[in-house]
Amino acid sequence: MCAAVGALEDDPLFNAGRGAALTLQGTVELDASIMTGDGQAGAVAVVDRARSPIRVARHVMEATPHVLLASPDDALVEAAGVELMDPDYFVTEARRRQLERILADEEAPLTHGTVGAVARDSAGRIVAGMSTGGISKQLRGRIGDTPIIGAGTWARDGVVGISCTGDGEAFIQGAVAHDVFARMAYGGQSVAEAASSTFAAECDTRGSTGGLIAATGDGSVLLCHNSAMMLAAFSQDGETVTWV
């Protein structure tokens, strides 16, 4: 999980780690979370120096009594084995130009967003994780759905693992990741039915867009979104498939 998400954090094409969206002040504030199917979870928010926030989130899960830490100190980042970077490392020229165009009220699309992954091993254990830089021109201290367990991320062995992306405020209000799980676990819906009905009830009604990836206890995988496009891929039994 950390290897997959960490690789995307290092890729400046995505809105996570280096290349993340910039705040109104032109700085980067990173969020990440991880959850295992046995109910363990860890998350970090408003991170400005950790090269791999997902690995810091894992450290929170495994080595502290907490679930969510905001602005974790440098000592904790180093204890997680994560490199501390100068904040300027995360800021790319593409993101600077994007923020300038947004502030000038010009259209400034960048198509790649929050990154996430879901995995199920041969024993049926499920883990989900995600990492993001939030949204361009956000206020300092803004926290979206990514580090909120149940909003952007959820995992339960035997049922489903989910990683979301989209309008973070709406995903928090709708507890989207947990709602999909609940519709499956308590309502008997399939993962496709649960995802579709959750988006209809919690996203479409709010005029919000986004998507999710999911892996179920029986090995099924799903991409569901109401946005114009979402990129994803999965590997199963040695075969890799890309979705657009």
TrEMBL record:
The record marks 113-114 as: Cleavage. It comes from Brachybacterium nesterenkovii. Substrate binds at residues 142-145, 165-168. The active site is at 114 (nucleophile). Signal peptide: none annotated. Keywords: Aminopeptidase, Autocatalytic cleavage, Hydrolase, Protease. Its EC number is 3.4.19.5. One of its GO terms (molecular function) is aminopeptidase activity. It holds the Pfam family Asparaginase_2. This is Isoaspartyl aminopeptidase @ Asp-X dipeptidase.
